[in-house]
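Model it.
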Amino acid sequence: GQAPWRLNESLLHDPTFTSQISQNLEQYFQLNDLPETTPVSLWQAHKPTIRGLLISQASYLKRTAHKDYMTLLQTLQDATNVYAIQPQDAHLKTIENVTKSINNIHLAKTSHTLQRLKMRHYSQ
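Modeled.
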């Protein structure tokens, strides 16, 4: 089956987003705290609402990161093509900087994968 949903805790490091979550929670409870609604039902129903907000934000960040990564790859390709025609130090420096940025992304992804693997291994 599908693995259970887990909170991406890094989302909570963004003060703007945590403020948005707080506002959504306040609004949710104001709109749904009706006399005929039991506290248990109200509490259980709020969880999917907030989970949806968290999933939406995580998806947005993932799309943005992918777009940025693809932009870096295109920049690297363009800089490499320019350097092949005009081998100047400035073009080489651009290639080095973009390559460093791409390597940092790969390093962060690898680190994240190792943390998840470690967590999965030790939580079983």
